[in-house]
């Protein structure tokens, strides 16, 4: 069995743990890294009933077909990334469900690629969270437009991200490619200056 | 003498602000701009003109100011070319004048004025043409005497911010029309952004005291702004200029967040660049008054009438004790009456028109102001300030002046040559302009985008019409945005309609008077020192297009982009050419409307955040071990790891030698990795790569070359077959994104029938490459379930297993030409793997090596680097890789290889190059010629693509592309660079281990 302590987050060199606090307090922004979780890129034909059935059987929920929405069952979450592309997320302990996905799809035309290690997920919340996103992302996060259960791919500052709103408050999860995580963190930290930043445990 | 009135104005007399202009201390009040505060202190001379260094004062009170450009703040925070009219006063402000030496009052550059007759339009073009090579010397001297401010020192201490925003209605301009539109939209619950470039909202209402809904106009303004500020989804931004109107109702705004303060507040940016996507835009941008073109109209104290009024009403500043007024329209009459009421003498109002409405004449008479109809000012007297004006009778055709010259004593001249609606943004939006003969101005015509133009910007100057216009635009915007009204709609605001006036008399220049006035300069563009005769000269010299006239004379250029001069210039050019103004047209209105600083445009993308730096999982180890990095795409890769006392050459030689003789370790994480799955995956690769893929066995790897349609090499890399329908492709580090896009574009547009999915998995794995004769011993020492014997794990195969307790996928491939293994583990385990390898490898002196050593190692065995040996003009055959090109199948680029030019024998081909001086490393990019001493022109027959010193060969070596080089091994050529040259011998591009036995060991 692999010693979990050997694993290093893409932000390990920033020493965030030492700066973390439990509650954000007065800070307008709370930002933290979400612990490692399983992630798969799922490709398939969204118009193929057999494909949708197989995914539904394996994960308990079919992949969302409406653009920029998220389907979830308990702790398995499927984000719509494109007409034939989804991102499946689950806690590290749920590797079994993901194995089930591979076997359920069998010979159907599909692709499943493990991207567990490819992405870093940041959790962003706080009263000024929308203002912070507005500094670097051209999407409209107004509550009448973007709500919990929605996700979107875009640029944040100069890097590609997938942004997923998980709570009304608002709380967002920002998926960023691992090699860009340090850049994005430092940019978010600088851009948070007007609001105050609390580093929290994800 | 200008000065402050005892009462009135929107200033706070209880608070005194201290400021400096050109090392003298002055005092002002909150509510002042630098311009108004200087006027209040009796300062009129604020700058020197661009070309002639003539003394200049204020022309305007707003964004259109051409003259009063100052340098604000000092040192790294300094900023040149700011309009004093737009600089809000704060305590401790420091400003200095520009384009003068040594002082504003005594400026040596004024000598240019004496030679003014020698400086006609196009003077520089005509004079400094010969010899062309000397221009750089001329330019250096010219720039010192003709120019704007100096660039600030590097290292701006301030922060700038970007902000995206979305709204139903963006209202640009916070005057009565804009406020009426914003009020209507806000009350219905729309998402509204209202911006105004001024420090406060109200626009014209801030100066003219008009009433709305039977109450003071400013009370109504305060109510509307309070409504917007209270609304959840509306925002009112003062000090914010819309600078660009782009496609899809995308508008950029520049907010001056901290400019009015001694320093921006803690954590706040100096400026914020807004990027707004609006469903509807309401352009309530107002109008800008035109100056009159007459003799010596640039003297300090000659100002726009609206500016005189603005300083009087906003800051209680009188621009002089005796202010003469000249106009071609009704608007200046209010100015005359208000000046008189404030105790300023108005010797006369000189109107170009033959007659005006009796009511207007009566208003002046009631104040005892003399009205001179059908008269024109033909000359301004005074140099550093106005001392008087000469007035003559204007002929009915407007072509001549005649009769007595009457001199009026005055110390300022207020002029109004009509009004130009501010159509800049409308024009940027793609809207077409139409010239209105009555107003003598361009009005918005057919719109380009979902927008409405309201109020003075649409040529409607009457307050009641502006309010009705704005209210209607607000309603239309709601309808377009699909916002249904809740409850009873409020009434629109109302104001008393003004009585019908007399149309303006549009004369683009006042006829020349006698005597001194006949030769005096009559300025059209004050900022660029362009006169009426310069424009006439350009027309006589054959310039017909107004765009050419602009560039030849420089009219309408500079920081003000001709806001006060363009229409007068058009009128003069049209007159000279004998054309209608509508036929001449305008020059193009381009963003930004007013200057934006690079700081605002850069935002937070500065310093380390200029561009993302991609980090591998082992980056912290490299940093901690002193690596020197180089950019590869957005990655920063270790270039070499110097030890104490080593320079780059010593470190690279050591790393190369260690890898060739024992064991080296490379962070290869940055290689692009693409997961390719589907029933047609092998067929897909067959079409993408030049070589065959269908018969590659599962568990095996193959090197592939991909070409663009033109047959030129685009990328290369090793691809492994993971399963019957599953491949793992690697690409060059810098090309990973481009290759994935290339694959997707073929799948999506040309071959949708292929059942293949491509996914980037570059970030999934950390990759450590161990390389060297002892690599196998290291792998065996790690412990695990893999057999590394050559029989069990041959060259160009891969296996999954456990290494030192880490799940790993090992590829036995080689880029160094040595026995090598590329170990892939989960990215989060990269550091664990690396440290394990460093510990276990100590027995063989394992040596981490960087990209530089990697380049030397691969070049020694003749492996190419795409982008170094290739540049988009190189075929596989040019590289000597004929064996990689399948004749048995089709692939992208194949047909192009048969083109006459790609198939000819004397193309530039890859060769090795050994300099005769064995220690001479020739520069990469150096040109190659046949031999030394050839008479020019000397044909270039090739260039050096890679060049290094090899510690293994004990000599310098290089690779090059040389015409017909494949058949010329053994011949000597001459390598040339920077005025030097050296002989070198051509050889096969393999310097070591030509049969590749070391990698297969």
Question: Brief overview, please?
Answer:
The complex is a heterodimer of chains A (202) and B (1001). Helix content of chain A is 22%, strand content 34%.
List the helices and strands and how they pair.
The complex is a heterodimer of chains A (202) and B (1001).
Chain A lengths: L15 H4 L9 E5 L3 E8 L4 H11 L10 E4 L2 E7 L2 E7 L3 H11 L4 E5 L4 E7 L3 H8 L14 E6 L2 E9 L3 E7 L3 H11 L5 E3 L3
Parallel strand pairs in A: 1-11
Antiparallel strand pairs in A: 1-7, 2-5, 2-6, 3-4, 4-5, 7-10, 8-9, 9-10
Chain B lengths: L2 E2 L12 E5 L2 E5 L5 H7 L6 E2 L6 E2 L12 E4 L6 E5 L9 E5 L13 H4 L8 H5 L7 H11 L14 E13 L3 H12 L4 E4 L9 H4 L2 E2 L2 E2 H14 L3 E4 L2 E7 L3 E7 L14 E13 L3 E3 L12 E3 H11 L1 E2 L4 E5 L3 H11 L7 E3 L6 H10 L3 E3 L1 E7 L6 E7 L6 E9 L2 E5 L2 E3 L2 H5 L4 E4 L4 E4 L6 E3 L9 H19 L41 E3 L4 E2 H9 L5 H8 L12 H12 L3 H4 L13 H5 L16 H6 L3 E5 L2 E6 L7 H14 L2 E4 L4 E6 L3 H8 L12 E7 L5 E11 L2 E6 L4 H15 L6 E4 L4 E7 L3 H7 L15 E7 L2 E7 L7 E7 L3 H12 L5 E2 L2 H10 L39 H4 L4 E8 L11 E3 L12 E9 L4 E9 L8 E6 L2 E8 L14
Helix pairs in contact in B: 5-7, 5-12, 8-9, 9-10, 13-15, 19-24
């Amino acid at each position: 069995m692999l010693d979990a302590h050997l694993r290093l987050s893409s932000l390990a060199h920033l020493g965030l743990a030492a700066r973390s606090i439990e509650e954000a307090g007065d800070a307008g922004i709370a930002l933290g890294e979400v612990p490692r979780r399983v992630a798969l890129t799922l490709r398939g034909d969204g118009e193929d009933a057999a494909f949708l059935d197989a995914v539904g059987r394996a994960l308990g929920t079919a992949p969302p077909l409406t653009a920029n929405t998220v389907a979830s069952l308990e702790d398995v979450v499927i984000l719509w990334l494109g007409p034939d592309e989804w991102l499946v997320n689950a806690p590290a302990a749920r590797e079994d469900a993901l194995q089930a996905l591979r076997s359920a799809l069998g010979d159907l035309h599909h692709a499943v690629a493990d991207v567990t290690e490819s992405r870093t997920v940041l959790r962003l919340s706080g009263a000024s969270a929308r203002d912070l996103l507005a500094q670097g992302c051209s999407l409209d996060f107004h509550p009448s437009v973007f709500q919990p259960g929605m996700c979107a791919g875009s640029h944040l500052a100069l890097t590609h991200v997938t942004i997923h709103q998980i709570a009304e408050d608002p709380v967002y999860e920002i998926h960023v490619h691992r090699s860009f995580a340090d850049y994005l963190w430092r940019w978010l930290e600088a851009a948070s200056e007007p609001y105050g930043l609390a580093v929290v445990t994800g | 003498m200008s000065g402050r009135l005892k009462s009135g104005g929107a200033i706070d007399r209880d608070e005194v602000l201290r400021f400096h202009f050109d090392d003298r201390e002055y005092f002002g009040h909150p509510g002042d701009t630098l311009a108004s505060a200087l006027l209040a202190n009796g300062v009129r001379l604020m700058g020197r003109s661009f070309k002639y260094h003539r003394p200049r004062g204020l022309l305007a009170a707003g964004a259109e100011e051409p003259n009063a450009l100052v340098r604000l703040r000092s040192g790294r925070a300094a900023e040149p070319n700011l309009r004093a009219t737009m600089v809000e006063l704060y305590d401790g402000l420091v400003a200095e004048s520009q384009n003068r030496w040594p002082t504003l009052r005594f400026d040596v550059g004024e000598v240019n004025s004496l030679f003014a007759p020698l400086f006609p339009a196009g003077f520089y073009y005509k004079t400094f043409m010969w010899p062309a090579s000397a221009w750089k010397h001329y330019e250096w001297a010219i720039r010192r005497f003709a120019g704007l401010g100096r660039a600030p020192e590097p290292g701006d201490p301030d922060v700038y911010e970007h902000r995206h925003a979305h709204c139903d209605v963006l209202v640009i301009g916070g005057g009565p029309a804009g406020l009426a539109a914003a009020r209507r939209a806000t009350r219905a619950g729309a998402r509204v952004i209202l911006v105004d470039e001024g420090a406060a909202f109200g626009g014209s209402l801030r100066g003219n005291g008009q009433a709305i809904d039977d109450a003071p106009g400013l009370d109504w303004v305060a109510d509307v702004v309070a409504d917007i500020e209270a609304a959840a989804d509306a925002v009112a931004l003062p000090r914010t200029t819309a600078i660009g109107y782009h496609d899809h109702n995308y508008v950029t705004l520049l907010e001056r967040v901290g400019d009015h303060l001694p320093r921006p507040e803690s954590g706040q940016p100096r400026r914020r660049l807004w990027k707004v996507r609006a469903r509807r835009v309401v352009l309530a941008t107002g109008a800008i008054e035109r100056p009159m073109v007459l003799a010596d109209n640039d003297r300090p104290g000659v100002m726009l009438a609206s500016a005189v009024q603005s300083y009087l009403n906003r800051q209680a500043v009188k621009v002089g004790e005796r202010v003469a007024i000249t106009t071609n329209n009704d608007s200046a009459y209010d100015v005359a009456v208000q000046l008189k009421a404030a105790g300023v003498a108005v010797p006369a109002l000189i109107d170009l028109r033959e007659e005006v409405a009796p009511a207007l004449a009566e208003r002046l008479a009631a104040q005892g102001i003399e009205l001179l109809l059908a008269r024109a000012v033909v000359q301004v007297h005074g140099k550093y300030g106005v001392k008087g004006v000469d007035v003559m009778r204007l002929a009915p055709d407007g072509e001549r002046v005649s009769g007595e010259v009457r001199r009026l004593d005055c110390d300022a001249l207020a002029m109004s040559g009509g009004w130009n609606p501010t159509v800049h943004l409308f024009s940027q939006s793609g809207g077409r302009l139409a010239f209105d003969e009555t107003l003598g101005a361009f009005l918005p015509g057919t719109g380009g985008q979902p927008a409405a133009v309201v109020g003075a910007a649409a040529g409607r100057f009457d307050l009641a019409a502006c309010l009705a216009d704005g209210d209607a635009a607000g309603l239309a915007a709601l309808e377009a945005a699909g916002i249904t009204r809740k409850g009873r709609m409020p009434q629109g605001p109302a104001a008393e309609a003004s009585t019908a006036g007399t149309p303006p008399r549009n004369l683009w220049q006042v006829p020349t008077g006698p005597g001194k006035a006949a030769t005096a300069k009559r300025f059209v563009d004050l900022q660029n020192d362009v006169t009426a005769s310069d424009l006439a000269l350009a027309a006589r010299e054959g310039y017909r297009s107004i765009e050419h006239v602009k560039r030849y004379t420089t009219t309408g250029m500079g920081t003000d982009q001709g806001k006060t001069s363009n229409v007068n210039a058009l009128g003069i050019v049209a007159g000279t050419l004998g054309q209608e103004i509508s036929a001449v047209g305008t020059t193009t209105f381009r963003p930004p409307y007013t200057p934006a600083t690079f700081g605002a445009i850069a935002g937070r993308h500065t310093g380390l955040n200029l561009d993302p730096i991609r980090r591998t999982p082992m980056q912290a180890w490299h940093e901690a071990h002193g690596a020197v990095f180089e950019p590869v795409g957005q990655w920063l890769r270790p270039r070499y790891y110097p030890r104490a006392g080593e320079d780059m050459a010593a470190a690279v030689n050591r790393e190369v030698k260690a890898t060739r003789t024992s064991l080296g370790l490379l962070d290869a994480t940055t290689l692009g990795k693409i997961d390719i799955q589907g029933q047609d995956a092998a067929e897909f690769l067959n079409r993408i790569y030049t070589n065959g893929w269908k018969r590659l066995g599962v568990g095996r790897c193959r090197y592939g070359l991909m070409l663009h349609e033109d047959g030129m090499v685009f990328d290369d890399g090793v691809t492994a077959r993971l399963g019957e329908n599953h491949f793992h492709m690697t690409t060059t580090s810098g090309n990973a994104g481009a290759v994935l896009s290339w694959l997707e574009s073929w799948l999506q547009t040309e071959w949708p029938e292929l059942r293949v999915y491509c996914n980037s998995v570059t970030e999934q794995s950390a990759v450590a490459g161990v390389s060297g004769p002892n690599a196998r011993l290291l792998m065996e020492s790690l412990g695990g379930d893999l057999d590394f014997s050559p029989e069990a794990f041959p060259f160009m195969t891969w296996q999954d297993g456990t290494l030192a307790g880490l799940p790993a996928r090992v590829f036995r491939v080689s880029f160094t030409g040595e026995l090598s293994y590329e170990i892939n583990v989960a990215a989060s385990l990269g550091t664990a793997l690396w440290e394990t390898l460093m510990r276990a490898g100590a027995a063989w002196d394992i040596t981490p090596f960087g990209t530089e050593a990697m380049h030397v190692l691969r070049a020694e065995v003749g492996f190419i680097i795409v982008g170094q040996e290739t540049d988009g003009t190189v075929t596989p055959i040019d590289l000597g890789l004929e064996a990689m090109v399948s004749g048995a199948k089709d692939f992208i680029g194949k047909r192009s290889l048969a083109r006459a030019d790609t198939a000819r024998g004397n193309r530039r081909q890859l060769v090795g190059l050994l300099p005769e001086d064995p220690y001479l490393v020739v520069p990469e990019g150096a040109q190659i010629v046949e031999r030394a001493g050839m008479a020019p022109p000397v044909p270039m027959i090739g260039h050096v693509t890679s060049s290094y010193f090899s510690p293994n060969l004990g000599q310098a070596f290089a690779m090059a592309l040389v015409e017909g080089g494949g058949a010329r091994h053994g011949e000597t050529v001459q390598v040339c660079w920077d005025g030097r040259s050296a002989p070198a011998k051509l050889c096969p591009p393999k310097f070591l281990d030509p049969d590749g036995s070391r990698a297969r060991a």
